[in-house]
C-alpha cells in the first residue's frame, strides 16, 4: 500500500510500505477514508519527534472502514464505518475499560506514549490502511450524521480541546482565554461556549486563525500584545486559560492571563522537558494548574453525541482536503501555516 513516511527533519515522502496485518486475535485492519495532519505531527516533522525512528508511517487521526478483524473481536466486522482514536489502550485492564487508555497497565511502547505514528511500534494512519490493536477499545462506530471530516477531528483535536476545557472546569458565565488557535484551540473555543462560557478571548498571531475564531464567536487578540490586551478587555484577567500551543511563552501567557483564583489548563505539547514556573505569582493568585494528554476514548461518548446533534461543529476547522499523493506538499503547507491553512485532511484513496 501507499503510506506517508517520516524520513527525517522536514523530510516526508509518500511511498510503498508493507500492507498491515491484523495484530493478533484482538486486532483489526481499517481502510482509511480520511486522515488528519495534527500539530503533533508537526513536532515530528520539525525534528522534535517522540522517538529516534525514521521510516515509519505518520498520522494518528483516521476514519475509515473495517477490512478484517481478529478472532476475538465481536463488536466490529468488515464494512463497519469507524473512527480510530489517536490514543491507544488494551481491551482488558480496568483503566482502558473506563476509557482512560493513557493509564493502561498492559501496553508499553518503549519511550513513546501509546499513539499511532510516533515510531515503528505503531505505524500511523496517513496511509491506505492501518493496523489497530485491541479493536474493542480502539475503534469507535461513527453515526451516519457525522461526516468523515468531522470524525477525523473527533479522533484527537476535538477530544483534546474538550479534555482541556473540562479540566479547567469551565462554568456557565465564565470568561475563557484560548491561547493558540490551531485546530485544537478552535475546538477549545467551541467547547468553552458549549460549556456555557459567556466570553472567549482567542489568541494567535496568524490573522486567518484569529478570523476563524471570531467567526466562532471569540474575541480575537493578537499574540504580541495579548498580556495587556486581555487584562484590559477582562478587567483583570479571565476565569480560565487554555493553552493549545506548547511553548514556554504561551504557558507563561496563560498563567498571566487568568484572574486571582483562576484556572489554567495546558494541552499544548512542548518539546522542552522543563519549564520555570513563576511560583510566587501562582501562589499569590491561588491559581490552579492542570496539564496532561488526552485519553480520547474517555471523551468520545460526549463528543459523538454533541457532534451528531450539531452542537459541536468540528468540520468548521477544516481548511484543505488533499490526496495522500500530495502529502509532501500538505506537510509543507501546514508547517508554513500558509495563507488560510488550518486543518488539512488527506484522502488515501487518491
Ligand atoms: P497548530 O500548530 O495547528 O496550532 C498551534 C497554534 O498556536 C498556531 O495557530 C500558531 O500560530 C499558534 N501560536 C504559536 N505561537 C504562538 C504564540 N506565541 N502565541 C499565540 N499563539 C501562538 O497545532 P494544533 O493541532 O492545534 O495542536 C496544538 C497543540 O496541542 C500542539 O502542541 C499539539 O502537539 C498539542 N496536542 C496535544 C494533545 C494532548 O493530548 N494534550 C493532543 C493533540 C495535540
Ligand atoms: Zn489497558
Please supply descriptive tags for the structure shown above.
binds zinc ion, 350 residues, single chain, alpha/beta, 15 strands, Rossmann fold, Quinone Oxidoreductase, Chain A, domain 1, binds nicotinamide-adenine-dinucleotide
How would you portray this structure in words?
This protein is α/β, with parallel strands linked by helices. It folds into 2 domains: 2-156 and 295-347, Quinone Oxidoreductase, Chain A, domain 1; 158-291, Rossmann fold. Helices cover 29% and strands 25% of the residues. Nicotinamide-adenine-dinucleotide (NAD) is lined by residues 38-40, 42-43, 156-157, 160, 179-185, 203-206, 209, 223, 244-247, 249-250, 267-269, 293-294, 337.
Q: Describe the global form.
A: globular
User: What ligands are attached or bound here?
Assistant: nicotinamide-adenine-dinucleotide, zinc ion
Major sheet attributes: 7 strands, mixed
Q: Which structural class do you get from the secondary structure elements?
A: alpha/beta
Annotated CATH homologous superfamily of the largest domain: Medium-chain alcohol dehydrogenases, catalytic domain
The low-confidence runs, each spanning 5 or more residues with pLDDT under 50, are none
Q: Write down the overall mean pLDDT.
A: 95
Short description:
The protein has 350 residues and is an alpha/beta fold.
Strand and helix map with partners:
Blueprint: E1 2-8, E2 11-16, E3 28-37, H1 39-45, E4 62-69, E5 81-84, H2 94-97, E6 129-132, H3 135-138, E7 140-141, H4 148-154, H5 157-167, E8 175-179, H6 183-194, E9 199-204, H7 207-215, E10 219-222, H8 226-234, E11 238-243, H9 248-257, E12 258-266, H10 279-285, E13 288-291, H11 296-308, E14 318-323, H12 327-336, E15 343-347
Parallel strand pairs: 8-9, 8-11, 9-10, 11-12, 12-13, 14-15
Antiparallel strand pairs: 1-2, 3-4, 3-6, 3-15, 4-5, 5-7
Amino acid at each position: 500500500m501507499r503510506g506517508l513516511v517520516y524520513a527525517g527533519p522536514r523530510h516526508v515522502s509518500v511511498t510503498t510500505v508493507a500492507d498491515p496485518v491484523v495484530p493478533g486475535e484482538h486486532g483489526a485492519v481499517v481502510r482509511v477514508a480520511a486522515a488528519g495532519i495534527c500539530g503533533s505531527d508537526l513536532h515530528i516533522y520539525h525534528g522534535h519527534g517522540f522517538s529516534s525512528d525514521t521510516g515509519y508511517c505518520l498520522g494518528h487521526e483516521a476514519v475509515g472502514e473495517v477490512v478484517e478483524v481478529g478472532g476475538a473481536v465481536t463488536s466490529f466486522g468488515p464494512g463497519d464505518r469507524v473512527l480510530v482514536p489517536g490514543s491507544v489502550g488494551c481491551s482488558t485492564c480496568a483503566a482502558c475499560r473506563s476509557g482512560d487508555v493513557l493509564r493502561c497497565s498492559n501496553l508499553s511502547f518503549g519511550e513513546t506514549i501509546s499513539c499511532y505514528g510516533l515510531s515503528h511500534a505503531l505505524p500511523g494512519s496517513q496511509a491506505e490502511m492501518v493496523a489497530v490493536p485491541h479493536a474493542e477499545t480502539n475503534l469507535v462506530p461513527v453515526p451516519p450524521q457525522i461526516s468523515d471530516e468531522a470524525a477525523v477531528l473527533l479522533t484527537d483535536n476535538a477530544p483534546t480541546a474538550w479534555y482541556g476545557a473540562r479540566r479547567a472546569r469551565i462554568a456557565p458565565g465564565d470568561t475563557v482565554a484560548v491561547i493558540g488557535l490551531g485546530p485544537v484551540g478552535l475546538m477549545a473555543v467551541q467547547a468553552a461556549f458549549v460549556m456555557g462560557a459567556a466570553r472567549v478571548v482567542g489568541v494567535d498571531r496568524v490573522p486567518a486563525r484569529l478570523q476563524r475564531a471570531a467567526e466562532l464567536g471569540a474575541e480575537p487578540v493578537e499574540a504580541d500584545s495579548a498580556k495587556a490586551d486581555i487584562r484590559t478587555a477582562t478587567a483583570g484577567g479571565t476565569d480560565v486559560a487554555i493553552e493549545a500551543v506548547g511553548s514556554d511563552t504561551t504557558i507563561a501567557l496563560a498563567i498571566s492571563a487568568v484572574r486571582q483564583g483562576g484556572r489554567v489548563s495546558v494541552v499544548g505539547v512542548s518539546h522542552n522537558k522543563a519549564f520555570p514556573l513563576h511560583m510566587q505569582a501562582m501562589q499569590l493568585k491561588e491559581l490552579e494548574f492542570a496539564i496532561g494528554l488526552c485519553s480520547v476514548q474517555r471523551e468520545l461518548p460526549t463528543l459523538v453525541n454533541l457532534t451528531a446533534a450539531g452542537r459541536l461543529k468540528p468540520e468548521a476547522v477544516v481548511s484543505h482536503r488533499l490526496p495522500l499523493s500530495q502529502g509532501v506538499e500538505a506537510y509543507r503547507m501546514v508547517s508554513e501555516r500558509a495563507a488560510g491553512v488550518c486543518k488539512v485532511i488527506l484522502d488515501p484513496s487518491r
